[in-house]
Amino acid sequence: MKKRGWITLLCAALLLGGLLAVALGQAPARLPGPAAAGEPLTLMVATDLHYLSPALTDGGAFFMQAVERGDGKLVEYMDQVTDVLADRALELKPDALILTGDLTLNGERQSLVDLAEKLQRVQDGGVPVLLLPGNHDIGSLFACRYEGDTAYLTTNISQGDFRELCAAFGPDRALAADEASFSYVYEAAEDLRLLFLDANAAGSRGKILPETLLWAVQQLKEAREAGAQVLSVTHQNVFPQSQALNKGYVIGNWQEVLALLREGGVRTNLSGHSHFLHRAEEDGFTDYCTEALSVTPLRYALLELDGARRVSYRTESLPLLQEEAAERFDACSRLKLEAAMAALEVPEGEAEAMLDYAVKLNRAYFTGELDGAAAKADPCWALWQTYGGGSFWLDYMESMIEEDA
Ligand SMILES: [Fe+2]
């Protein structure tokens, strides 16, 4: 063929390719394979999104009342917040985006369908998404849609639904997957594996099932034989993060799980569920509890692993709705405190100062910004000690202050 003929053919091929790309949309980026041994890694971590599909609420009276009397989550904005988290992941391009459970508000199937679409966008952009279910996600009895002044039960998420809707976010690309739960092993690098342990399979009641424990022991053994370190990921904490807030926050059989992880050489766990930012350390084992994304200051974590697989953990806030998130959290604390203080005999002139102090303290504790010594020196603390006797709040604040002082 003459030179001109080749050029014509090349142009036609380019034009056809261009037209096809326009017609089909941009092809999804390929997900990266395991990094080489010793290559630094960055994992982006978010938890407790408590995402509610916009199709399930009209933002009416019942819904807003439930939200305003809740635990401080910015539920009505989570559609927007999740989109910004996805954008941030695509901008940062971490080696993976990890979501440690409580993906949905209360286990609505439609919420998971919508969320999965957003997460697919992240994967299509080349960032692997790895997730776990939380205690709110599977078999929930509280999955509702909200209309006017009523809430109606809606389809919840069965274990099968979860597997079907979320298989692409972990199990499909796993080295090994457990049959009894949504637990799996992901090879982040030739020398680093991530062990996702699911304590929220149907019927597990917040415990890791016995068959899953056996499976995990085998996975840890295989990792050791392959010369790979293992970092674990759970929804509930693997040991108590707080003296005051630990009942129901740790995995039901946490002692057994912790012993198994330690024996397997695991030194770092990532968890959520408690909604506050905290790090618990014991004999060289660290559990990083990331704060709920749905709670002020709408934060995610970046976990960096250097060539020797040493871990550094820091957090960043999403740049939106900061005032709204703080106000929501404080308003919810205030409501609970007002109810608790009604049972105390506090002189009228002191009540407002005590209330403001406790609201501020609670937010500082959740966001990991509490200065225990300063809180102890505040005159309002003396007021609480004088008038707060016998209340949950006094014990709770005492444990926060002592923990940090
Ligand atoms: Fe949870």
What do these coordinates show?
This protein is of the alpha/beta class. The protein folds into two domains: 277 residues, 4-Layer Sandwich (Purple Acid Phosphatase, chain A, domain 2), CATH 3.60.21.10; 83 residues. Helices cover 40% and strands 17% of the residues. A seven-stranded mixed sheet has the order 6-7-8-9-10-12-11, with helices on one face. A five-stranded mixed sheet has the order 3-2-1-13-14. It has a two-stranded antiparallel sheet with strand order 4-5. Helix 3 runs parallel beside helix 4, helix 8 crosses helix 9 and helix 9 packs across helix 11. The longest helix is centred in the first third of the chain and has 22 residues. The N and C termini lie far apart (83 Å). About 4% of the residues have low confidence. Bound molecules: fe (ii) ion. Fe (ii) ion binds next to loops. The site of fe (ii) ion has 6 residues, from loops.
